[in-house]
Amino acid sequence: MDKKQLNFISFSQYIVFVIVLAATAARSDDETPIPASLDGNTAPRPDGVSKLQQALALRIGGTMAAVYNVKMIGFQDTLCDDRGVHFYKDCYIEGTVDFIFGRGKSIYLQTEIHVLADVPNQLTFIAAQAREKDSEDVGYSFVHCKVDGKGKGAFLGRPWMPMPITVYSYCTMSAVVNPEGWTNNRNPESEKNVFFGEYKNTGPGADPAGRVKFAKQLTEAEAKPFLSLGYIKGSSWLLPPPKV
To answer: Could you say which residues form the signal peptide (predicted)?
Structure first.
């Protein structure tokens, strides 16, 4: 493949490990080229009945990783944003069920989140952030992203684990987003432990009128920590995209 056709994931000196599809690994101080499109569609589209239909396009299990201009394609569990602090910019992430999930602490900037059509017999979720307890400093922040796709039932997030943190700020949301915005995963007890927030989003899918009561329309002060690179301490490790 022509080097100019490759996009990059770059890593600081503190990276632990990264697995891309067939166990491609990156050492510390690496800038590892990966295909501009990561296709995880080796499993069938989920039908809400069959098991073992997940297929990762990308898993990041190390810390201080930056992902630029990468297209991630899948159905269920497209991106495993597993552990560590991460930065995604100008990416495209596509899927149906929990297609961004894991225990990472990450910023998604100017990234397109594309929902495929509603799945029969199954709800559609974008983010399943996996924070389990108060002591975990993790969460997902989507900033200036575009949420679009087909269907009208996609939830912005759900409590896969007990105490998720997920925030969307300055995002454009199409009617693909369920008017309720968020789900309690059919467990009302989870509502008291989640932090689901929105700040100055626009578009037909961003209307706060129908949102569930356990999600928050954030104030400027509440949103501020999620809007800068300070959320992932990026000034101490984040590098610009490598030149090719």
So the answer is: 1-28
Which residue out of 98, 134, 137, 207 is catalytically annotated? 98
Q: Which CATH number does 58-236 carry?
A: 2.160.20.10
DSSP 133: S
The percent helix, strand, coil of the chain (3-state, each to 5) is 10, 40, 50
Q: In what order do the strands lie in the sheet with 58-60?
A: 18-19, 58-60, 79-81, 97-102, 124-129, 154-157
Which residue, 104, 152, 147, 97, is CA-closest to 127? Answer: 97
Give the strand order in the sheet containing 139-143. 31-35, 6-11, 65-68, 85-89, 105-109, 139-143, 165-169, 195-199, 216-217
Residue 98 designated active-site: yes
- C-alpha dist (Å) from residue 51 to 17, 46, 55, 186: 28, 8, 12, 20
Span between the terminal Cα atoms of the chain, in Å: 13
